[in-house]
Each structure stands twice: as C-alpha cells, then as structure tokens.
Amino acid sequence: MKSNKANSLLKLIFLIVCSMQLTAQEKPNILIIMTDELSAESMSFNLGNQYINTPNIDQLAKTGVVFSNAYCANPLCVPSRSSIFTGRYPHEMGIQSNDEKKVDPTKFPSLGSIFKNAGYSTGYVGKWHLPYERKVPETHGFDYLPNTTGNGHDSISPQLANDFLKTKRNNPFLLVVSFMNPHNICQWARGEKLPDGAIGNPPPADQCPPLRPNAKPSVNESDIMKFMRTSMQNSDAFPVGAFTEDKWRQYIWSYYRLIEKVDAEIGRVLQSLKETGKDKNTVIVFTSDHGESLGDHGLMYKGCRFYEGLVRVPLIFSWPGHLVENKQSDALVEMMDLSATLLELAGAPIPDYFQGKSLLSILSGASDGSDHREFVRSEYFDALDPHFTGGNGTYATMHRTKSHKLCVYHGKGVGE
What we know:
The protein is 32% helix and 16% strand. By secondary structure, it is of the alpha/beta class. The strands form 3 sheets. The chain has a 7-stranded mixed sheet with strand order 4-5-1-6-8-2-9, with helices on both faces. The chain has a 4-stranded antiparallel sheet with strand order 11-12-13-14, with no helix packed on it. A 3-stranded mixed sheet has the order 7-3-10. A hairpin with a 4-residue loop joins strand 13 (405-409) and strand 14 (414-415). Helix 4 (77-86) packs parallel to helix 13 and helix 8 runs parallel beside helix 11. The relative contact order is 0.19.
C-alpha cells in the first residue's frame, strides 16, 4: 500500500515539474476532433466489429485514455458546445437553446481567445454552433476560420484542416475539427436527402443490429413523461411513432453507417497530422457534443430528457509517449473538464471562474480518478419541451453519481 502511494506521489511530482518547464520547452499542439450526436458506446472498440467498424477512433482509444463516464452539460448542441469552450455551465451564460444568441466575449472568453493569449495559433474547421460572431475573430479568438456561414461539409473539413496543419509556424497550435455526422440520422428518419452524402439502403432487419435493451417505454413511466414521449413521436420533425421493430433496427444500422462515414474523415485528419510531422507533439482529444436516443424508450434525437444515451458522450485523450495509453477510466467527468485539462497541458493558468476540473492526474497515471467528482450535472431549459407539450416546458436538472441519478423538472412537481 505504501509503495503504491509513493509511486503515485512520484508521478504527480514529475507531472508538476513537467508542467512548470513548459515555458522552456515546446508546448504541445492540441487537436480537438468533435462529432455531433454520437452516443458514448457506438464505436467498434466498445461494440466489436459485427455491426460497426471505426478503426480511426479505435486507434485513438488504443493509444490514449477513454473516459467512459463523461457527461455533457446539456444534451443540445449550442449549450453543450458553449459550455465546453468556456468552462461554464449553460445557465451561467443564458445559453439554453440552439438560437443564435451571442455572449459577451469579455465575460465569457472562448478557448480560442484563451489559447491565443497563451501564444497559440488557433484554427476552427466545420460545424460552429458557438455563441460568438464567426466573422469577428476578436470575439472568439480563432484566426483560421474558413467556414464563416453554415456548418461546413464533412468531406471538405479534412482538407481545410490539412491547409492549417501544413502551414509553417514557430508557435504551437490549437485546432478544432468539428464534424456534422452522425447527426444526419435526423434527415434519414424523415426520409430526406442526407446533407453529408448517401449511405445506401439498409438491408432486411434480420441483418441489422438488434434493438437496444431499453427500447421499450420506461417501467412505471409517469403521465407527463408519457405525454412528452408520445407528443414527440407524433411530431413531423421526429416521425418515429409508427416505427416498427424492423424499422428501428434499420435506423440503428443507418446510424452506424454515418458513424463509419465520419470515422473515415477523422482518419484523413489524423493522416494529415502524421504527414506534416506534427503527430509526435500533438495532444488529440476526441468527443461529441451530446448523444442520440437511438430508439431508447421509443425515441430518436436529442434534448429535453436525461437518458444515458443522450447525456453520456465519448471522450478520449491521446498523446502517445506522454500520457497513459490503452486505458479506460470510469471517473465521473463533466465536459468542462476537457478544457481545464488542455489548459493545464499547455501550461496556461486555469481561470478562477472555470467550472471544469483538470483530468491530468488521471491521464498521467498518478490518480485512478475515483475522487475526481462525486457527481456530474446536466441541465435543460424547456425540458418537456413546449413544442411537444403545449407550452408546459420547464427547467430541468440532472445530478448523477456512479450509482444513482436524480432528474428534477422544476416547478412541475415531477422528478425521477
């Protein structure tokens, strides 16, 4: 026991010393790869290769640390991304929907601004969904931002990333490559053209992945949750009310194809990183803004509930030779911890207002993460969304420990 404690202490001391020396040594480059609507388990390193194959994400898992209990601050794009990039909870910023609301960049500076002030070159490629004016770099700090409108296109983003990576510079960089898929599953469910390219028609249901274990409505489902579920199922935007079990299996098959599609684009980015010789000194972070219902409780899409498929997201840190490799941590993690960790890796001070906690002691092997957080928190404004519940929306919060989850729909007398 004493030997284990001594080893952990030595590792921690080594980590602190290395961090103090970053001003004299080359700081690491940072590459953040984001997907949209990817559930935490939907990759082949978790599920095996029978129904899905994600070799590029799998390689990051093999050469890094996978956090299996990482939770988003809000299961909706803009609030979640805003939280990641500011280190603040969405309610602190007043960002609770996907509206194009902007925040005061002096009060809520983004990672782009923070890293730029720390001497980094900064770039952002692909889907935006952040509360800053894209065409005004002073508001967000990203000097390289080729997509100033729309959400970009997944097949083009790797080339734009390559253009940034091959630029010669004397300072380290922070590059965000933000992909849209597997979000295209929403268009697939509505029978619409997929924005990022076709995936082919699904095979017969008996050749598709099985239904998920929790495909049926919750046991003892409350009246208001049943009302929310059936209202959403009957909406034209989420037309799954008439889905048969066979259709749900084809839905999952299609979702997996979209994940494979974005995995291939991620592979192109990683190849560019290697070809430009920057892979040896680059910390790679892979994540998603939120998950996907994927048929859980008969639902698709995101938002207004706190089911695990929605709020638990993938999170991988990979920097071979510097961080622990091929490890899975079950530490409770909030996505704001991502940005706090990157600041510490870069030797930059973590602002006092940051709600995130650095994961570096886990990544270095100095800690097993058991005491990282006692619980994680998520929130949603207009939970039991009035779009589906006739104006009965409410503010909701989730608190989750490793053994229990408490969800409260404030003002409605409803919780679970």
